[in-house]
Amino acid sequence: MASVVFASFVAKATRKVLRLFGKGATTLPGKLALKINPTIIRKLSVDKDIITVTGTNGKTTTTHMIVEMLSNIGFDVVTNISGANLASGIATTLICGGDEIIKAQGGSKQKTKTVYVLETDEAAFAKIAGDLQPKVSVVSNLFRDQLDRYGELTYTRDCISNGIDKNDAKLVINADDSLVASLGKGREGRTIFFGMELASMKSNNVTHPENKGVLPASPDAVYCPLCNVRYEYEARSFSHLGAFCCPKCGARRPSPRFEVVYSLSKSPSDPDYGYIIKDTTINEANEMILKVPGSHNLYNSCAAVAAVSAYLEEGNDKKECFDTACKAALSVKAAFGRMEKFSVGDGNKQICILLVKNPAGLDRSLSFLANAKDADSLFFLLNSNIADGKDVSWIWDVDFESKIDNLPKRIYVSGERWADMQLRVHYAGGRIDKADCMEKAKEILDRAIEACEPNKCVYILPNYTSMLALRSILVKQYGLKDFWK
Predict the structure, then answer these.
(1) How many helices (H) and strands (E) does the chain have?
(2) Residues 226, 246 contacting (CB under 8 angstroms)
(3) Which of 41, 235, 310, 468 could form a disulfide with 201 if both were Cys (CB 3.0 to 4.6 A apart)?
(4) Which CATH superfamily is domain 49-76+114-329 in?
(5) Class of domain 338-478 (CATH, top level)
(6) Is the dihedral of CA 434, 438, 440, 444 positive or negative?
(7) Residues 6+ apart with CB under 8 A from 341
(8) Is the pTM value of this prediction over 0.90?
């Protein structure tokens, strides 16, 4: 077997050549290295402090939050910034990441170990978690996604479970997602739960039932896997997340250590949205500002604070670690394609990109847009490449109908499957301003920006490969950084 040194040399040389041609080089270097030495991930992970983030939705945002928080605290951080989260992308990051280390922005100046924060695909996690031997592993949630690749959610849950059993990391997992919460069973000694405060959920959708329209039910993971009986909910945050209980076997939501306190009487679409994170083990609470808008990002923020607190805690005071993590979270910004907003034209108009790749993600984005005061128009882009999932029928599982009247009146559609999305919007009662193939995406975007009112925003909802194609247009037209920078 070829040496790690030789495999790393080939990967770095390949990356250098690809970068000369303006390519991201986020996966091919690692793919070649793994061909040369299949054990390279395990060899390069030795003695490294690694935090992994996996789950269906929120991986990139949560990873990005943890990276910025650790950097703000004073650590140097390496991450797969482009979201290349398969084994090849992880290998590339371990080999080449030190060349693009994210330097500490402030906080402690003492010498610390570099931290590797790695977004990890759910299926890939099963294969490489044992090699990585992370200190902390975050599991965000499980929603239907890429059914042609993953199949049922229980399979995805089992992939993550298999990966967990190959290491002894602290587990930071979502108490409000029944499938994710089940990962803590038998692993109680190393599990840290995060979630929404029960009183907040009750206030938002029990005491004030008018808010239930904002929080539609979901067919994802609403049945007890042991009894096949539908869960009863004392309260829900959104989709299938909430205070679940099986009426037959009694399985129920575990009590979270880290809790979000929030109110839907405010608008999570407001960039100055305030909320509270509590650490119930030390009876401590900190006031926060949601730096990346959208109610679903309350979970991502709580997960990030929990993960950073867990990482810092070994041998340190819990209150100090919690306060440090919360303070660091106040400075985070949106990640690539996740509520990423920038000015265009004369600077008095904006574009915001919200990646949508499954029913839960699109539903959350539409709920956000139904309350966004600056929304001028909406631009959907839908592809069906392998990285997206070939089956786009999932768009019919999204509740467009209850939101369409509150969405922007100008709606544009593009992408390889533009006709599918056009039909979906049409049946929901929306009016399409312009719809055409991916080759016309730039023309449609220009039209949307031209029609946009001053001080308003064109919200763009692409899935994965259409987002990359759109990004290349924006790089050329507005000088944005490439996705891998």
Answers:
(1) 16, 17
(2) yes
(3) 235
(4) Mur-like, catalytic domain (3.40.1190.10)
(5) alpha beta
(6) positive
(7) 334, 350, 351, 352, 353, 457
(8) no
